[in-house]
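I have been asked to look over a protein record a colleague put together. This is what I was given:
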Amino acid sequence: MKRILTVLIVTAALARVTVAEPIDPDLAAQVRTAVEKGVTFLKGQQKENGSWSEENMPALTALPLWAIAASGLPGTEAVQDKAIASLLGNQKPDGGVYVLQERQGGGLGHYNTSVCVTALHPTGRQELTPAILNTP
């Protein structure tokens, strides 16, 4: 779990560096290689149902989706499709994206929803607008 989160953070950060401002071409190539490795790792960790890690915490699927979508790398559409289907499968009629849980704090609905909706946006898919705007 720690390894996946570390890869997510580094991949997302490095993906943003590549578009933030011009950098040395050698450094840009190193960054792009690191992003490609991170995305390759994340693609390999995705479960058949489209989720990563804890299935009762949709945010833990949204974070890899966010990193992959933000990377801008080609050939990630199928991985994104599976992740999006997993997230939307947890969207409730109230617009929230969470799994109901019988424990103190519940299913962390606000956290899961905010991370999921934020992760859907960088996919750039207009057909997701209704799902994004249906949030509480």
User: Anything to note?
Assistant: Helices lie at 2-20, 25-45, 59-71, 77-88, 109-120, 129-133.
